[in-house]
Specification:
Jelly Rolls, eleven-stranded antiparallel sheet, seven-stranded antiparallel sheet, 18 strands, about 10% helix
């Protein structure tokens, strides 16, 4: 696990200069306060991207099936929530899926509620039980290959407690992507949170994702930041997103500054509701 830390770099200066500088900065901080943070980005109004009744504006892409085919009604609307359902399945058969919103986004805040429901399918891989996620800065569903299990994207992973070994929710996973923590390249495909909670299946949980104009990303669970990272870029050497080699080769190691949002189906039923987004722009 990579621990988040803060590094402060200063130049050597005469002691009196440091004292004066400290006093000046302290005074400026007191004068600016919350106003400085408020002016860091300009935020638009919150708007819903799920109407609570239909899947209008959303496109499914399920492994072994073409984009747009909602195989056996994997994604349904039930009581105001998008539900990942396996009622029509006999076996999972590694048919990992994702439900993509229709337009890409650059900088924004996303908030939603989620909960895991039971039971999952018997042949769901052990690691995928009570496991789902919100993918972002993703490739489009149409650009995925037929058998591709995961889009090139960053994943805000969510976990429930009904697993062989309960783990904290809020990891970040990176199929086809590199990220950095404090400027250091993440070594693992998934980085668990240092302070994420373990949440029981059936519990509605608040997920918030802040993708800032400067490229920083903050993941929050129930209002608490559990991940902070930056430096999103394509990883042409990736082996976690099989089927995406041509897509990755075409992009090299270029930075990723926008992409699609998708909700994941990994073999365990999960529900998402109250899905809202707020566009962010850097001040001019």
């Amino acid at each position: 696990m990579i621990q988040l830390s803060q590094f402060v770099r200063t130049r050597r200066a005469p002691m009196m200069g440091l004292v004066r500088m400290g006093a000046l900065l302290g005074g400026l901080a007191l004068l600016a306060g919350p106003q400085a943070n408020a002016e860091a980005v300009k935020a638009g109004p919150w708007r819903s991207i799920f109407d609570g009744r239909t899947l209008d504006g959303w496109t499914p892409k399920i492994a072994k099936h073409p984009a747009g085919e909602n195989y056996r009604q994997t994604f349904v609307v039930d009581h105001g929530a998008i539900r990942v359902s396996y009622a029509g399945y006999e076996r999972f058969d590694s048919q990992f899926g994702h439900l993509f919103y229709k337009t890409p986004f650059k900088a924004y805040r996303l908030r939603l509620m989620y909960r895991f429901v039971d039971p999952g399918l018997p042949d769901t891989p052990t690691w995928a039980r009570s496991n789902s996620g919100v993918m972002f800065h993703s490739q489009s569903p149409e650009s995925m290959t037929l058998d591709q299990s995961f889009p090139v994207s960053v994943e805000f992973q969510i976990l429930g407690d009904k697993r062989d070994a309960p783990k904290a929710t809020g990891a970040v996973c990176t199929p086809g992507v590199n990220i950095t923590f404090d400027g250091v390249l993440a070594k693992d495909h998934c980085t668990p949170p240092a302070n994420g909670p373990t949440i029981a299946n059936g519990t509605w949980t608040k997920l918030e994702l802040d993708v800032m104009p400067n490229g920083e990303v903050f993941q929050k669970i129930n209002g608490v930041t559990v991940q902070h990272y930056a430096g999103l870029a394509y990883d042409p050497k990736d082996t976690v997103a099989p089927g995406a080699q041509a897509y990755l080769a075409a992009h090299g190691d270029a930075p990723i500054t926008e992409g699609y949002i998708a909700l994941q189906s990994e073999g365990h039923p999960v529900e998402f509701k109250d899905i809202e987004i707020q566009d962010l722009t850097a001040p001019r």
